[in-house]
Amino acid sequence: MTEIVEEFRVRARSWLEATAAPRATGSLSPAEELDRARAFQAALFDAGLAGITWPAECGGQGLTQAHLLAFNEEAGDFDLPISPFLIGLGMCGPTLVDLGTSAQQARYLRPLLRGEEIWCQLFSEPGAGSDVASLQSKAVPDGDGWLLNGQKVWTTGAQYGDFGAVLARTDPEVPKHRGLTMFIVDMRAPGVTVRPLRVMTGAAPFNEVFFADVRIPADAVLGSVNEGWTAAVAMLGHERVSIGGAVQQSSNPLAFSSLVETARRHERNEDPVIRDELVGAYLRERALQLLNARLKQEANTGKAIGARGSVLKLVRALNAARAVDVAGMVAGSEAIAWTEGDTAAAALSMSITGAPGLAIAGGTNEVQRNILGDRVLGLPKEPQVDRDVPFRELRVGTQREI
To answer: Could you list the active site residues?
Structure first.
């Protein structure tokens, strides 16, 4: 019998209060942070709170979107050390549920859910960003498997990834969307090189990844050979829903509750202009929460979210940009300079600096608008003169001889 949502909510809240300790910011090394994250994810799984909507046969709880929404609402009050698993749980895992063979699901899903193995997503390349289908990394048949060569960029979490979902070209003689295949790649395999990319926050959450004759077994194809674009669209759909519907933790310096506290700390909470901006921040944040809840409830009834997931991703990026403006108003000079040891001001500055990345990650705002115009609103597509041209004949990105 399915657990009643409110009973599930109480159980989740009780577990979070007992288990989700305050984040130890700055006191742990990266290795210690990763160990802490793994331990927490394992405890989350053992408590029956991981993979809430995933099918039971895939290691999940087999519960409804209403249960997931209840958990996310309760989790918003806690700092959960789950960031290393967000790509796997939000993008790679759901695609394995959709397209993976029974053997792949049995091998990978439970360790993924329990935090024993970390996944990354390998799509973008130096010459293939918004136009992912123009990618040049290639996999060629080799005996009973494949050899992978190429370069990926902006890969989140590759530095500690165990496995990755990589998109590679397997047939350059057909148009670019038709000759791609998605593979499961062992990130520890010989020939895989990971190099960090530092961003303007000072952190290095992204990486460039190089593949040099990396051996991939035949049973590592995710989906079907030369049907990788279908797998990519599925994964990107999960990615946009994951980004747009991510839990907004109350400790996020750009969250409404944090902005209110910042305004109070600077004695600006009585300023009518500031109060008006804070009301706007609340309305935008709440509207996104309700939209996310609506789409997930529709999904629970069997109605596919599809391209509408781009709304969540786009709105979250736009909300973050507006929240940065509000943060600057309420924090003043604290947004750009602070005294040593002022962790609140430092966190706010890092959030402000990192926020523009949301307009790029998972597809730019412009890409999301194109998707919505084409697939949701039914507007005419943009001209694509290369759609039916064999990839080998194209001159795209940094393409060299294929």
So the answer is: 239
